[in-house]
């Protein structure tokens, strides 16, 4: 039989004692993250599936999971081991790793799920935790109270309260063993929030989201999404989030995009016993297929017909391997999507595989109804899938703040193009935050009302076709606002190369759609433009300058054809470059407008072979900025960071140093490090968690930030890897990838 890997793998190296229990994030895409959980039996990389192992029924041996598949962790039930004398004796005498013959990370459940299935368990709160500790598990679980979706609010409230009351004694019993603190609350979002807030106050290592198995069994995926939104934002960010009992590959992308780190399931074996196949596209029955939905190693030498002829035991084992391999493959696909910044695109694709999953996805990405909307107006709103996904009740907007947390954690700047996926594209969180930043920060040149020209009908790059036109228009109509219509919305021409607006990969018709003047005017207002007249120019035409002249003459902005002395063009081009750099500093680096004007007012430019600005040089001859070709962003040099920082107010610094969560709300965010880290940062070393004193609250992942010592002295700059709250709470990993070396620049 074809295997992922033949032979044996080396046993894992235990993590350093000082690192055990710590979780570090190594890559992210918004809320989705690639992490490392440090344990006594090695590092558990996330997102990860912990296959459920029944000690009495081992469809696939745990050792095979380690050797063949490289599975770094699994989960088994401590209550089952405790209840069976022979298993209990073996585990107590030789440890659970010997019992299962598995060298990796072992997590154990407490018996809570058995209470859901069978009604009750016969073990005490402290007793079950002490037992898990005694058998040498890496991660134990407290005995929480399961909340079923059919329970009343009062019953669920009582269950949440009881679980919280058990925390202290459970943690005391765990001693130095990592302990799970499950989140309950049924389908009641306010109780999920309450549970998460209270459980987060205790020193748990991981927070599983419990009580979701019956919700998934009933395909109530919208309720699952609501639970995720209500819960994730309330949990300490430095702890992994575990989806208890979730193991269907169809759900991974959406849940990972919302912030899930760990999954566990026995579905790979349970479905196999029922001759069912797991797939990212849904579930298949063996009797219905002619070819494998997913061709994975274990079935390359088998046809579905041949597998159907096997005896029950052989068939179950083979289908279990199939389900496990498909599940691992989808997890790997999700990890790659996180690295690429495309996890939401993958979630979009997967949402079409099941009607209930599509409903959940649309609910997530559809703006809710305003609270208090008259009920008589609701019938007319249900026109398509997206409008139907809105909540039709008086409290229709209650989840919007939770969705905002997902949007606000997105990094704006991305190097890859944006692949068009229909209307879903406009709801991708990173696009929402890119539009938000543009609308909040960018300002037009004219403070009053003005005429607007919108370039439409052709994809970028626009500079090659439109630069000469724009220069000539600005020479005769300096107050004319010129924007480009992109599939993602209006884009000021000064930012014409900005990702993701300028790099949409889609069909030609996207750029030729007829524009709605009402919607255009609304979007212009969000960009702080009060438009007198809105003119639309099709830039796909030949003789573009002549066509533009005709349009402007028709509407009375010009009296004759646009003619400009070419000797004026160098000056006009310099003004355009100045505006481009100015707007990028304001929109991307959050620099105050007046500070940005002062910084670049007397700058000169080094021009590359394509005619674009390569470097920005200040009046003293210092290289301070470089526009990036890949994403339309800017890179700040050491000298540039010093110049920008000098223009920021230092009033936030008191005699005793910089206080966290203060500041003016503008400028590249500041991060303060301990004195022990200063000399390393000065030499260009990365900033690590655990050495950070404070930071500005508007610090976001993927954002340029300034690094200072406790006296407020600039010592470096770099790219933040996390948000403000994460920066202060994580205890391991890189907080800022430093892009400076002050020890060389300022000798």
Explain how this protein is built.
- Helix content is 37%, strand content 18%.
- It has 747 residues and is an alpha/beta fold.
- The protein folds into four domains: 17-350, TIM Barrel (Alpha-Beta Barrel), CATH 3.20.20.105; 366-400, no CATH class; 418-563, no CATH class; 640-745, Roll (Archaeosine Trna-guanine Transglycosylase, Chain: A, domain 4).
- Strand 24 (653-654) and strand 25 form a beta hairpin.
The CATH topology of the largest domain is TIM Barrel
Helix content: 25-40%
Strand order of the largest sheet: 6-5-4-11-10-9
| Distance, first to last CA | 64 Å
Fourth-level CATH superfamily of the largest domain: Queuine tRNA-ribosyltransferase-like
Number of strands: 31
CATH C-level of the largest domain: Alpha Beta
Query: What are the segments in which pLDDT stays under 50 over at least 5 consecutive residues?
Result: 660-664
Helices, by number, come to 29
Beta-strand portion reads 15-25%
Biggest sheet record? 6 strands, parallel
Q: What is the CATH architecture annotation of the largest domain?
A: Alpha-Beta Barrel
Structural class: alpha/beta
* Spatial shape: globular
How many discrete structural domains? 4
